[in-house]
Design a protein that fits this description.
Length: 114
């Protein structure tokens, strides 16, 4: 009896990966083993960087808040400490947005905690 290897499914699996590596450079796009390895590594980076992105945005928000706070006579740490003392619960994301797009409102918050 002939050996059954289900070539249709095997080819479909390979084709799926090769379609996903279409824009890659050189052998990464058309050699099965190279394409598979580069695609898997790319998926690992994507997973890791979805988490790293959150930390990057937090760092950006802190820089923006610090710059705006110093224009109003406080450092970042002083501002955040006083916000916590007064129990004003605004996220860094919101504070950074106010600092960038609505400096008057940010100044009022700073004056409230001073």
């Amino acid at each position: 009896m002939p050996r059954s290897v289900n070539a249709v499914a095997s080819r479909a699996r390979r084709k799926k990966i090769l379609n996903r590596t279409k824009g890659a450079f050189g052998r990464r796009r058309n050699v099965w083993t190279v394409a598979k390895n580069s695609w898997e590594k790319g998926q690992t980076y994507a997973y890791r960087d979805r988490r790293d992105k959150k930390g990057s945005f937090r760092a950006l928000w802190i820089q923006r808040i610090n710059a705006a706070a110093r224009l109003n006579g406080l450092s970042y740490s002083e501002l955040m400490g006083k916000l916590h003392q007064k129990d004003i619960q605004l996220s860094r994301k919101v504070l950074a947005d106010l600092a960038m797009n609505n400096p008057e409102a940010f100044k009022e918050i700073v004056n409230t905690v001073k």
